[in-house]
Design a protein that fits this description.
By secondary structure, the protein is an alpha/beta fold. Helix content is about 25%, strand content about 10%. The strands form three sheets. It has a seven-stranded mixed sheet. Helix 1 links the parallel strand 1 and strand 2. Helix 7 runs parallel beside helix 10 and helix 11 crosses helix 14. The longest helix has 15 residues. GO terms for molecular function: metal ion binding; RNA lariat debranching enzyme activity. It is found in: Nucleus.
Length: about 525
């Protein structure tokens, strides 16, 4: 089995598919699956563009709408995670994953699926400590602040992934695990991306939760994007995963990939010679059991119920005089909100269930595994149903360009309803009616606590200035509608996709597999510009 991995998509599905078809013809091979590492931009219409966090000059419909409408069919089964430039309103309809178009599957806020015997996991978004311990409270109509916090990783999703006990073959994240540069050719990375040098040296580059998942889950492969550069590394594991066979190497092969542009390292094909299962997308039993056992903890509000093993609830506020640079668990004090007893009781009951065996990473409770097994038997299969349904009008190319309008609410996606019904779970994704701690379409409480720090308060006028994750494309290349948009797919330089690493990198990582090398032809401006400021 051959799986193609792509970095940042930025809505350029036509070009990515054409590149794969060119590669198949050139190499006389077959690609079975495409996986994308974020910034997918599943934009259906101009309204979705109002929910895309980037400057207006880069808000382009691109080509996804054709696959959503049925005007085109994806030539490859495609699986993706979200990044920090998405139509957040659409992805928010599918927090547990689902089809955004026929043959194009979103993994959800976090998710695990199986394809032909290859187990694939992923985590959507990027890390930002300010919102890490909150719930998924953001819904349309978004503010400039909530449009960005919507794509920030939440601890609940990371904690769910941490409960997995069975081995993973592939894991996807948009931003890199922290300290990953220490395991590759750091000097070469700094030559091509000079702005990263300081963060690499002080250890601030990357996501600490992703690093935690890498250490604990130890997948065979980990793929990321975000930084618009191709960078391979090999991460050794001092304490190998308990489920790993004794003859398997205790390491993870990491590869970051670029975005889809001619001459850039945005694509890698990986062989899985031992994968022999049916080439169809299937639910993962262990993951669904984790979702089922933790469903009661999911809230569409800022105040997140405490997780099992945590002494403090997530809505705790910083103690007076506490420095923000100190880890939250050392500076937060408990301030119990009104009407929170139900949340506390649910968390206490779940903690007892998960810790009954003496630990926090025992896998989901047996009763939930049995429930999933019964659900599969009732369906006759664990195959993910092809139950895509449009939930918003698609762009009409005959209607001309118009100014989009911010959506006022989120619809209940039929796929989410069907999955919850299969799991025997209630729908708990509607916003609270009182607006307490919730998003932006409800008024704030009349009287706020004067000592409480509003962690979501970012003025609309200053949002662009204080957002360090956005990507400044000025100086990188022309806007998507100029030049590159008309590029012939035959002009994309596929040479070097599978070339060996240079001698220096090979000596640094003697176990490193051949994942290709960083492109030599990046423009000087790209080497000097931080691609996170968009």
């Amino acid at each position: 089995m051959r799986i193609a991995v792509e970095g940042c998509c930025h809505g350029e599905l036509d070009k990515i598919y054409e590149t794969l078809q060119h590669l198949e013809t050139r190499e006389q091979t077959q690609i079975d699956l495409l996986i994308c590492c974020g910034d997918f931009q599943a934009v259906r219409n101009y309204d979705d563009l109002t929910c895309l966090a980037c400057p207006d000059k880069y808000k382009q419909l691109n080509t996804f709408w054709k696959y959503y409408s049925g005007a085109a069919t994806a030539p490859y089964l495609t699986v993706f995670i979200g990044g920090n430039h998405e139509a957040s309103n659409y992805l928010a309809e599918l927090p547990f994953g689902g089809w955004v178009a026929p043959k194009i599957y979103f993994l959800g806020n976090a998710g695990i699926v199986n394809f032909g015997g290859v187990r694939i996991g992923g985590l959507t978004g990027i890390f930002n400590q300010r919102h890490y311990r909150m719930g998924h409270f953001e819904v349309p109509p978004y503010t400039e602040s909530s449009m960005r916090s919507a794509y920030h990783v939440r601890e609940l999703d990371v904690w769910r992934l941490m409960q997995l006990r069975q081995p993973l073959d592939v894991f996807l994240s948009h931003d890199w695990p922290s300290r990953i540069a220490d395991h590759g050719n750091k000097a070469q990375l700094c030559r091509y991306k000079k702005f990263l040098a300081k963060e690499i040296m002080d250890g601030s580059l990357g996501s600490p939760p992703a690093a935690q998942l890498l250490k604990e889950l130890q997948p065979a492969y980990w793929f990321s994007a975000h930084m618009h550069v191709k960078f391979p590394a090999v991460v050794p594991h001092a304490a190998p995963h308990a489920s790993r066979a004794s003859d398997q190497p205790a390491c993870t092969h990491f590869l970051a990939l670029d975005k889809c542009l001619p001459g850039r390292g945005f694509l890698q094909v990986v062989d899985f010679p031992e994968a022999s299962g049916p080439k169809e997308l299937c639910y993962d039993k262990e993951w669904l059991a984790v979702l089922r056992s933790t469903h009661r903890l999911m809230r569409m509000q800022q105040r997140q119920p405490p997780l099992p093993g945590h002494d403090l609830p997530f809505w705790a506020t910083p103690s007076k005089g506490a420095r923000r640079s100190v880890p939250p668990e050392q500076t937060y004090v408990w301030q119990q909100p009104e009407d929170s007893q139900g949340l506390l009781d649910a968390a206490a009951n779940l903690k007892a269930e998960w810790q009954s065996g003496g630990g926090q990473r025992l896998g989901p409770p047996l009763k939930d595994l049995d429930a999933i097994e019964d659900a599969f038997k009732g369906r006759g299969s664990c195959t993910i149903p092809h139950n895509f349904q449009p939930t918003a009008p698609c762009h009409d190319p005959q209607g001309g360009q118009r100014r989009g309008s911010m959506p006022k609410s989120l619809p209940r996606n039929p796929q989410t309803l069907a999955l919850l019904a299969m799991l025997g779970l209630p729908y708990n994704l509607d916003p609270p009616t009182d607006g307490r701690g919730f998003g932006n379409n409800h008024p704030a409480p009349a009287q706020a606590n004067p000592e409480e720090i509003d962690l979501d308060a970012v003025s609309n006028g200053d949002a662009a200035a204080v957002n360090p994750e956005e990507i400044d494309l000025d100086g990188l290349e022309e806007p998507p509608d100029a030049g590159a948009a008309e590029a012939n797919p035959e002009e994309i330089d596929l040479d070097g996709l599978d070339e060996p690493l240079d001698a220096g990198a090979a000596e640094t990582n003697p176990e490193e597999i051949d994942l290709g090398e960083v492109d030599e032809d990046e423009s000087p401006s790209d080497k000097l510009t931080d691609p996170r400021v968009f």
